[in-house]
Amino acid sequence: MHASSSVLEAIGNTALVELRRVLPPDCARIFVKVEGQNPTGSMKDRMAQAMIARAEADGRLKPGDTVVEYTGGSTGASLALVCAAKGYRLRIVTSRAFSEEKLSQMAAFGAELTLIESEGGLFTRKLFYDMIAAAKEISREPRTYWTDQLNNADSIAGYYPMGEEIWMQTGGKVDAFVQSIGTTASLRGVATVLRRNNPVVKIVAVEPAESAVLSGGQPGAHKIEGIGIGYAPPLWDRSLVDDIIPVSTADGEAMARRLAREEGLFTGTSSGANVVAAIQLGRRLGPGATIATLLVDSGLKYLSTDIYKRREAA
Known about the structure:
Elements: E1 16-18, E2 29-34, H1 44-57, E3 66-70, H2 74-86, E4 89-95, H3 100-108, E5 112-116, H4 125-139, E6 144-146, H5 154-157, H6 160-169, E7 176-180, H7 185-197, E8 202-208, E9 243-247, H8 249-263, H9 269-285, E10 290-295
Parallel strand pairs: 2-10, 3-4, 3-6, 4-5, 7-8, 7-10, 8-9
Antiparallel strand pairs: 1-2
């Protein structure tokens, strides 16, 4: 062990944990990457670091500049961490539709928040369009760099190390990888590395059942933070994916609670949805297979939400 010269050195190298009690009989082995171990409690630390580093390297971002982004919170907190460590001003466009913990965490790192109204506190295509439009307007100001996560392919490289970690931690025995779709960067980054090592590894995408646009359905409102923007994200590449599994908000929330109570793994709804989808796939592949998926962030980001809001005993 050695001391780190910066908090940014603490990003990555997270644990891979095998699930036990939530799995049904005759299911494949399922391993989860515990991304809540990253400094802000989210896998997005990886992509934030990559986007900022690459923009610095090619001159798009210079000392004294301002960074701007639209985000539901985890990317914002991760960018805020990186910008705080590197000395950049950060302006975030977000909404109260996302958890109060995420908004507070971004602000704690020094991010300046612009809040966009959401219809009924739900995640809709209109909300994401409005957030993007506001960020674009801010980006026109002098010396402002817009990371533009939905269109920024720099983020994909931030997840290559995650793919290498999964390959090494499973001893090269992973048969499938399952991940929910926000920007698509994490799925593409990990899939690129896994397919390089094993061209036949299965790649499965997860989306909200209420807004299953990648499966050919109609956009709709849902409550799974961080995924399901209501249209195919620009970085989406259908040719990389073997299957798409829709999971409802209710099922994702229920699994998140089960993971906490039965496995001691504390995470959010999209992570619960990942495990629901991995179990569906695991039943098809059977006990001889090994599946990896992600617990993308920490449940500490959702304490005020319906997933974990404390209920008094009757």
